[in-house]
Amino acid sequence: MNDQPLNVSLEQAKLLGNALRVKIISQLIDVPKTAKQVANLLDQSGGNVHYHIKKLHEGGLIELVEERQYGGVKEKYYLAKAKWFNSVGNTPMDPVLNDDYLSRDSTSLSLRLNLTTEQQEEIKEEFKKFLESWVVKTSVRNYSNGEEFSIGVKIVSTKQKEEGDTEEKL
Taking every annotated instance into account, which residue ranges of this chain make up the domain HTH arsR-type (predicted)? Predict the structure, then answer.
């Protein structure tokens, strides 16, 4: 799989604003799977996972890569188009991460570092691995008493953009 982030529309970003859908995508990164296989891995009902897979497929975030006839049933195998996604423009991927969102519980962490280009790439990769590890940690059990949180990491140069600069995303 290409490790480059996929640029997504506002509608696609809304589809990603759901912890179960993120978990589903995480299960479809390397190996195509059916909705039933994903449901078993995530300890979720088949109908629930099928619904979310259908929405992700319709939204262009996963693709149907194979269909197999198994007895009287047609098995559909899906694969994620990317494991990282970028929103286009200045809107955060998840509207919950907007500064004006009134959350019941929120923590904001920030600091400034002087980084070389190599260090910026290194910290970006470390954050990606860290977030991926938490997707895996929270995918193995269904925490019925858990609460959904949105977590975003933003690495921003303190130098302001000048006219003619091209825009690059994380």
Answer: 11-90
Model pTM above 0.90: no
Q: What is the pLDDT of residue 48?
A: 94
Domains of the chain, start order: 6-139 (1.10.10.10)
Cα angle 82, 63, 46; round to 5: 105
Burial class (CB in 10 A: 0-12, 13-18, 19+), 108: exposed
N- to C-terminal Cα separation, the chain: 18
61 burial level (CB within 10 Å; 0-12, 13-18, 19+)? buried
**Beta-ladder partners of 69:** 74
CA 68 to centroid of chain Cα atoms = 28
3-state secondary structure of 71: coil
